[in-house]
């Protein structure tokens, strides 16, 4: 089997062989939010810094390391979650599922919220921003009986659905974004939070002719994580959850006048091994992207830690990018139309 090359945090690419059979990572305690005065929030090894006014087109969430260096959440946060050490003491192996590999997930949209926040793939350092369509901020409609997104929604860093690559099964090309993730855990996260997730399966959504994979995962800190090991476990323990997920993705654009989304494999979820294989493939495409071995499709690949990338930049250059953004300000009001029910 072809080895998978991954980058350790703020280091060079390292090799992981086989089907991710490395030791499982220790769960990391979520740090408390920093005082709002500093507009910072701590999340695992990372902090976020808000710029601009929330609910406006200039609002951005930038990412920093615990040492205060600005980074790209797309390129500088590793795909595989690292083993945490407490005060220099190596993490203990868990008693169960010690070969389980956890992935980092960058949360873009909290569960039950409507603002379509996303990694800005075409901006320097790829901050999180709210999507804009036809000059207006984009909010996902409430498809009855749901309110906004029905899971924490985000992306796996260091992955890329290559628009130059045609999927062998669906015959569709990638959507030019990092691969999407739905965290079905209990905790409602915040935009910019970095969590460790356990992959359970994947859904092959086709969005206006483009391949748009949806990884189904659960926060490793969730009480149910130890009992959910594959997509079949979700079917058994959470009746209706996966059916609601397919229905949500099928209809969420209909209130905006778009057709229903379609699915590969007749809308059936594929298993964990299939999901991991897709993730590996999108990681390889990302590697080619940051090494300028493929057409970038307009993606901004500036990073501070991919040591074999010609698009590497210094910490000072990264800081200059953030300093050009407007200062954090009070939020704009949100239209009550965002709370409207849609029956489709």
TrEMBL record:
Gene3D superfamilies, per the entry: Inorganic pyrophosphatase
Which keywords, in A-to-Z order, does the entry hold? Acetylation, Hydrolase, Magnesium, Metal-binding, Signal
Q: Which GO terms describe its cellular component?
A: cytoplasm
Quaternary structure (record): Homodimer.
Question: What is the E.C. number?
Answer: 3.6.1.1
**Pfam families attached to this UniProt entry:** Pyrophosphatase (PF00719)
| Signal sequence region | 1-18
Task: State the coiled-coil residue ranges.
Answer: none
In the record, the note on similarity to other proteins reads:
Belongs to the PPase family.
Question: What is the name listed in the Swiss-Prot or TrEMBL entry for this protein?
Answer: inorganic diphosphatase
Q: Name one GO biological process term.
A: phosphate-containing compound metabolic process
């Amino acid at each position: 089997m072809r080895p998978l090359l991954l980058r350790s945090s703020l280091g060079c690419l390292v090799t992981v062989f086989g089907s991710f059979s490395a030791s499982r990572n220790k769960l990391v305690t979520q740090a408390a939010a920093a005082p709002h005065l500093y507009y910072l929030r701590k999340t695992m090894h990372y902090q976020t810094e808000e710029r601009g006014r929330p609910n406006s087109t200039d609002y951005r969430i930038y990412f920093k390391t615990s040492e205060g260096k600005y980074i790209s959440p797309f390129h500088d946060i590793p795909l595989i979650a690292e083993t945490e050490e407490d005060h220099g003491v190596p993490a203990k192996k868990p008693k169960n599922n010690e070969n389980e590999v956890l992935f980092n997930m960058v949360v873009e949209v909290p569960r039950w919220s409507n603002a379509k926040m996303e990694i800005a793939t075409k901006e320097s350092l790829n901050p999180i921003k709210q999507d804009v369509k036809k000059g207006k901020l984009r909010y996902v409609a409430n498809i009855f009986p749901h309110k906004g997104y029905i899971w924490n929604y985000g992306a796996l860093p260091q992955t890329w659905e290559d628009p130059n690559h045609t999927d062998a099964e669906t015959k569709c090309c990638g959507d030019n974004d990092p691969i999407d993730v739905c965290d079905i855990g209990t905790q409602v996260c915040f935009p910019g939070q970095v969590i460790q997730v356990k992959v359970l399966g994947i859904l092959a959504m086709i969005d206006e002719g483009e391949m748009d994979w949806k990884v189904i995962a659960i926060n490793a800190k969730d009480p149910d994580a130890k009992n959910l090991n594959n997509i079949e476990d979700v079917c058994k323990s959470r009746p209706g959850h996966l059916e609601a997920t397919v229905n949500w993705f099928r209809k969420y654009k209909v209130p905006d006048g778009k057709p229903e989304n379609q699915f590969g494999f007749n809308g059936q979820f594929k298993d964990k091994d299939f999901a991991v294989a897709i993730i590996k493939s999108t990681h390889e495409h990302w590697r080619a992207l940051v090494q300028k071995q493929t057409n970038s499709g307009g993606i901004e690949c500036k990073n501070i830690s991919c040591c074999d990338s010609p698009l590497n930049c210094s910490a000072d250059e990264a800081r200059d990018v953030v300093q050009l953004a407007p200062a954090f300000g009070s939020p704009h009001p949100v239209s009550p139309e965002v709370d409207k029910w849609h029956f489709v």
